[in-house]
Amino acid sequence: MPLQKDFLWGGAIAANQAEGAYKKDGKGMALVDVLPAGNERWEALFHPKVALSTTYSHYPSHEAIDFYHTYKEDIKLFAEMGFKVFRTSISWPRIFPKGDELEPNEAGLRFYDELFDECRKYGMEPLVTLNHFDTPLYLVEEYGGWRNRKLIEFYERYAKVVLKRYKNKVKYWLTFNEINMLLHIPFFGGGLIFDDNENIDQVKFQAAHHQLVASSLATKAAKEINEEHFMIGCMLAAGEIYPHTCHPNDLLKSVKENQKQYFFIDVQSRGEYPSYSNRMFKELGVVIEMQEGDKEILKQYPVDFISFSYYSSRVTSADPETNKNSSQGNAMETLKNPYLKSSEWGWQIDPVGLRVTMNQLYDRYQKPLFIVENGLGAVDKLENETIEDNYRIEYMREHIKEMIEAVDDGVDLLGYTSWGCIDLVSAGTGEMKKRYGFIYVDRDNEGKGTGKRYKKKSFDWYKKVIETNGEQL
């Protein structure tokens, strides 16, 4: 079955990994603006008190790839590839520098007016994430991040401002990026810093409840502002979790682990807490504090579609000794799958896993899907002003093949936006050498370089894929 004629091919970036200009035109500090690069970054992510009290030599988000100033030339390159859609995010602290103000920053709003106008000039639909790992830093320092219910009010005010402002420029919206990452990197996902001896699971799931209510309130606002035009989606860091063996206990463990990642989307899509969460919360010692009206808001305003990132599958075991051999793969622990190759960063490459994930998500929710992140992070070598990135082409070709197979299986798929369509700062490592793009950016891990853009071999390959609607891979 061929893809639908209006299939949305494109690429994706995030404001905090691309824009730079971290204090330009009144922008406030975001979480990411206190994070360094390299090995220090992981320590900072998991020990944010250290990050807030340390002065580092380099903060990659401060300049990133300077998309704030180069967006016109970059979008022109995306248009040359034939993008139908461009996924980006709005930096919350560009609009509300501290996060709790009553009035927005007009200079920040104007920047996104111009950015979305540039997209539409080329017939490109913006796909916009409201919160992509850039909660204002002030809200963390002053309120404790998403553990504090007040952030619902601040987020709702921000969402209403941008939804109204861009109601005629943006159709597709995502409320939170990879919302389940709150459980895995809580500082990124929720601006959470833990005190000694507190129940960390209690804090994380209470923060999750606040985000889920906020997501529904943003959906409510969107429906009130432009119900006929807007489509509101949630966003999951996806990837099926396989059992290590066919032992029933391993299978049961994989079911339980998959439930943990689907938990957020169960609420956002179905409008209520799943039945399995009762036992999960009891075993974790979690009691969700709800206010009157929370359940009604969740129920009345579910999302319209399910978007997700997919980089790899994972493997788990019911045997604690076996699980000691787990390693990090995209910030989530996994056992090594002996049937799969791995990227230079140890992420296991599993194209068939994309088809599996798509089928599982569509069977579970029966709502349109949107692949909004997929790609290969690799070290690229610039020679003769281009990069022979056949490894990236192969990775994407095999994943797109499986994507099309899933559509043939009956999955309703809106579009596909490859991650990091132009090289940007890695979220996990803060490096530039971990490149995903079709366009090379001349910057290194220390932020040095000309910033000049170069087309990679994959640029022309992806252009042909879009031209033929996936028929020529």
From TrEMBL:
Gene3D superfamilies on file: Glycosidases (3.20.20.80)
Please name the catalytic residues of this protein.
373
Q: Please name the InterPro entries in this protein's record.
A: GH, GH_1_N_CS, Glyco_hydro_1, Glyco_hydro_1_AS
* One GO CC term on file: cytosol
**GO molecular function per UniProt:** beta-glucosidase activity
**Single Gene Ontology BP annotation:** carbohydrate catabolic process
From which domain of life does this come?
Answer: Bacteria
Pfam families the UniProt entry points to: Glyco_hydro_1
SUPFAM superfamilies noted in UniProt = (Trans)glycosidases
Instruction: Note the PROSITE patterns from the entry.
Output: GLYCOSYL_HYDROL_F1_1, GLYCOSYL_HYDROL_F1_2
Q: Identify the keywords attached in UniProt to this record, alphabetized.
A: Glycosidase, Hydrolase
Family per UniProt? Belongs to the glycosyl hydrolase 1 family.
Among NCBIfam families, the record links this protein to: PRK09589.1, PRK09593.1, PRK09852.1
Record protein name field: 6-phospho-beta-glucosidase
**What is the originating organism of this protein?**
Natronobacillus azotifigens
